[in-house]
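Late entry, evening session. Most of the bench is empty. Finally got around to the prediction I had been postponing all week. Sequence below, unchanged from the version circulated by S.P.
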Amino acid sequence: MSESPSTERVTVSIADGVADVRLNRPEKMNALDQAMFRGLVDMGERLAHEPSVRCVVLSGEGRAFCAGLDFDSFQGMADDPRAAAFELAAGTAAAIRAAKRLLEGVGDLEAADAFQNERNEVSQLIGSPNQVESVLAFFEKRDPSFADPS
């Protein structure tokens, strides 16, 4: 059986309670594309249910940990920025509410307090089921299916 692109992009070995997760796209300095992102999500879900794992080490094969996004994968957004803006506006209700909360008090706050508020909002959104669904739907070129927890 051949491996899927996502399992080729992210590998793991587990020994003595440590999961050694590796980004495996050294020819592109481990730049993130759809298959890499899917591989990371799948690996996270797998390791979350692995009782022997006490620690996860994330690293990259080759000379770079991760070059960031593979911009060739995102070229479509640059081709039509207006369409990309509408796509972003169709985000989760939780993300839109968080943005509104941040904008409501921005004029009355010191910069450090405003950044702390942003950090708090982002920490509640990142990794949430709706955030993961949003990114996967984008990469899979489909409409997201959000659950509104309100």
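Two things to note before I forget:
The longest helix spans residues 34-48.
Helices lie at 5-9, 34-48, 75-79, 81-89, 93-104, 111-125, 129-139.
Will write this up properly tomorrow.
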